[in-house]
Design brief:
alpha/beta, TIM Barrel, 8-stranded parallel beta sheet, two-stranded antiparallel ribbon, 10 strands, globular, Aldo/ket_reductase_CS, NADP_OxRdtase_dom, oxidoreductase, AKR, Putative oxidoreductase YtbE
Length: 280
Amino acid sequence: MAKHLQETTTLYNGVKMPWLGLGVFKVAEGSELENAVKAAIRHGYRSIDTAAIYENEEGVGRGIVAGLKEAGLAREDLFVTSKVWNADLGYESALAAYETSLNKLGLDYLDLYLIHWPVEGKFKEAWRALETLYKAGRVKAIGVSNFHIHHLEELLKDAEIKPMVNQVEFHPRLSQTELRAYCREQGIQFEAWSPLMQGQLLDNPVLKGIAEKYQKSIAQIILRWDLQHGVVTIPKSTKEQRIVENASVFDFELTKEDMELIDGLNENHRVGPDPDNFDF
């Protein structure tokens, strides 16, 4: 189990991925975004997650460059993820989208590149493009996002390379037990987006009680629960105090009983779209 912020999980291809990173979903371009990225790096984060559809890769890139310089770190010290959007899920278009993301970020490579959503009839061609990028050494690892078991099974019928990561909605109201088990069996690292359910869990009485017991915030309890389930997590925040707080989850451990209490909150409830029924 992770003991500090820079601890990593090893993907099946040997690439090391930090257990905890900063997500920047829907954070607009500008100084707030750049300062958040810089603050995360300054306080020890070594993973930043963005996507083409967030329309903030340029700002993330500026924050990365400035943050690494301030911290005296090299590009190789940071794990950067982006994602190819649905409109670019052809073979050539996915290759072009990767170059666009790199140019906007101002980077020479990505550590992880994901297919953002499993658009039927398109994601296999996009996956072929990601395999091309990976085999050419242009990206350290490739994976998917929002894939159910049947999407992964369909992909694996023709894939030369198995996804290294599956990033999906995951929080105490949506614990994805079967999908986590499948990914574990396949050696695919499970990663959470919206781990705090967009703030909707912060007044939950069960979590309040557990938080009081450990003298931690509810957010810290949830993120610790993620980590103890072997789930990589990328909480979003633009506030430096919250960025620091979200990373302060390595100095305690939830008991088996408390883990089970949190597990019991599952209702298979989503705040985002169902990957089997989305329209964008």
